[in-house]
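Quick note —
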Amino acid sequence: MGRASREEICDATDELIRVAEHFGELAAMPCPICGSSKLVYVDFAFGSKLPSSGQVVAEGTLLNLSGRVGDFDTYQVEVCKDCLWNHLVQKQTPNRD
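Predicted structure written out below.
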């Protein structure tokens, strides 16, 4: 199996980079691809009752969100604002009553 080129893995969309710039939380480690200190985490929520698909979730708002919009899933993505690498870190489904 061959290795992927940097261009193949560093493919964050313009919208993801804008979200990372405005809502990203700085990671404690550098980017694993380019070594930049501009690696951030961005959290998104997806659910049928959310006002938009893939709503960005600011830190500390998940409990408030869950009381208002019903079931949803959250995704945390690492994004390097320098080389455009991005990676899904985790998906969570908050406890449902």
